[in-house]
Amino acid sequence: MQNNLLAETGSCPSCGAPKEAFHKDGHYERDFICYEAGTPVYHRITIYCVECSSCGHSHALEPSVIVPYSSFSLNFLMSIIYAKLTKQFPTVEKLCDHFCISVSTYYRIYKRFLTDSLLLKQLSELSNILEIWKNAPEKFHALLSRFHADCGRSFLQPCVRLRPNILLKGIPPDISRYIDNGSIKP
To answer: What is residue 83's predicted lDDT score, i.e. its pLDDT?
Structure first.
């Protein structure tokens, strides 16, 4: 897996040096929570790192199913949102019990989804993100790549600073209070 990710890495995100400037820079383990066969599954995975010999920055080689700075997989997060919006559970508490998350974690995920969905809609004029996620995974991942390129972060990534030039039109007042001077407030 490490060699596949290294081969897919185009250039250094910090300085633009070609992938030939990378050399192996160790690895670390992290928790990873997926949603498989209708239940949360906990994994311990190894993340490999490379260092750019041009600028000295170290980069983790994370597969696209990993949301940076989150132990939840993208599919796990989208499954939570899908379950809520399709009313698969009568209450938020029952949804949280099923996914083994706290209510406060659910609301953090949901608010992040609302904000990121509005940004994604501005970028692509799409009507239903959840339908694309469910029925057209290739199109969904292409949209996520564009989101990353335009916003400078991954879809549903927590604890990030927004690029100052990103337009935040249409963010509802209950969400916009979490955004201040280009950063998400706790």
So the answer is: 92
| Mean per-residue pLDDT, 13-21 | 84
Task: Name residue, tokens 């290739």.
Answer: 138
**Same domain flag for 57 and 84:** no
Q: Residue 10 pLDDT more than 60?
A: yes
Q: Is residue 69 part of a domain?
A: no
Answer yes or no: is 39 within a domain.
Answer: yes
Cβ atoms of 66 and 148 within 8 Å: the answer is: no
Which sign, positive or negative, has the C-alpha torsion 149, 150, 153, 157?
negative
Long-range contacts of 27-35 (CB under 8 A, 24+ apart): 27/2, 28/60, 30/71, 31/71, 32/66, 32/71, 32/73, 33/71, 33/72, 33/73, 33/76, 34/65, 34/73, 34/75, 34/76, 35/73, 35/75, 35/76, 35/79, 35/99
Q: What is the pTM assigned to this prediction? A: 0.72
